[in-house]
Amino acid sequence: MTRTWGWIAAVVDIVLIVVFALVGRSSHAEATSLAGTWTTAYPFLAGWLVGWLVVLGWRRPLRVWPTGVVVWVATVAIGMLLRVLTGQGDVAGDPLPLSFVIVATLVLAVFLLGWRTVAGLVLRVGRRGRGRA
């Protein structure tokens, strides 16, 4: 069962990071082409992968702590670093606008921690319900 949840968690995380990139591009009236979406998403996907590997995310994929938190922090930190190193997101000479860091950190927290929280609650309630039957 854990192996299945590991794959599901990885896919959900990746889809949510791509959704984050698509929403960001759309809100800035940028093209939502495959190449454009990839350019925006890959720094965060790389950060996610590092976090997933560091925390061995497939072992406890639904845990908010440590899995979700480590994956989230790595996604944001490495994603921002790669954006700066590749010259993405430069606004009027500012390679990393604070407003973007705040929005990305909050949205990715809601995405990467939120679904794990909901899944954990649903599974916990389901286990309790079966125990009473």
From TrEMBL:
The uppermost taxa in this organism's lineage are:
Bacteria, Bacillati, Actinomycetota, Actinomycetes, Micrococcales
Q: Which InterPro entries does the entry link to?
A: DUF3054
Q: Which UniProt keywords apply?
A: Membrane, Transmembrane, Transmembrane helix
Q: What is this protein called?
A: DUF3054 domain-containing protein
**Pfam families this protein is in?**
DUF3054
Q: Which residue ranges does UniProt annotate as crossing the membrane?
A: 7-28, 40-58, 65-86, 98-123
